[in-house]
Amino acid sequence: MSSVMEKLSQKIEEMLSKITSQRQEIESLQLEIVSLKAQNETKDTQISNLYEEIANKDRGFEDLFAKIDEGLHGESSSPANQQTSFFSDEALDSNNNQGL
C-alpha cells in the first residue's frame, strides 16, 4: 500500500510542479501581451502622425499647384500681366524651341 501512496505522492508533486511552471509561463505571456499592446499603441500613434503629415503635405502641394495655376492662367487674362509673367505662353514656347 505504501508503494501506491508513494506513486500517488510522486504524481501529485509532478502535477504541482507542472502547474507552477505553467503559471510562470502564463505570467510571462501576460507581460509580453501588455508590452506588445503598448508597442502597438505607439505604432498606431506614429502611423496616425504620418497620415497627418502626408495630409498636410498634400494640402501644401495643392496650395502650391493652385498658386502656380493662378500664375499661369489667372494673370494671363490681362495683357499687361502677359508680358511680365515668367510663365507666359511666349516664354514657354521660346524655351521649348531652344530644346529645354
Automatic annotation (TrEMBL):
Keywords: Coiled coil
Residue ranges, compositional bias (Polar residues): 75-100
Source species, domain of life: Bacteria
Regions annotated as coiled coil: 5-46
Region (Disordered) residue spans: 70-100
Name of this protein: DUF904 domain-containing protein
